[in-house]
Design a protein that fits this description.
By secondary structure, the chain is an all-alpha fold. The chain has one domain. The two termini are 38 Å apart.
Length: 81
């Protein structure tokens, strides 16, 4: 099936470069692979969230408070680039 998507000039150039490297005529196959991977990851993400939600309430109040303190300490040292 054909569709239209918006790409930046840089994205199009990189896709064409990758396609040429693979000796492909166009970059549709690369876009399809990327979309398949993205959709697969989204499904896995939903499963991970559902699994995490089943754990709700499994810690005692003291354990939960200690865990929250440790997470806050870790977040203070996170570096974003």
């Amino acid at each position: 099936m054909r569709t239209t998507i918006e790409l930046t000039d840089e994205q199009r150039a990189e896709l064409l470069r990758l396609a040429a490297k693979r000796r492909l005529k166009g970059f549709s196959e690369i876009v399809q692979e990327a979309l398949d991977e993205y959709l697969q990851r989204q499904g896995g993400r939903d499963e991970a969230i559902a699994t995490a939600l089943t754990l709700k309430g499994c810690l005692k109040r003291k354990e939960a408070d200690e865990f929250e303190k440790r997470v806050k300490l870790l977040r203070e040292t996170w570096r974003c680039s």
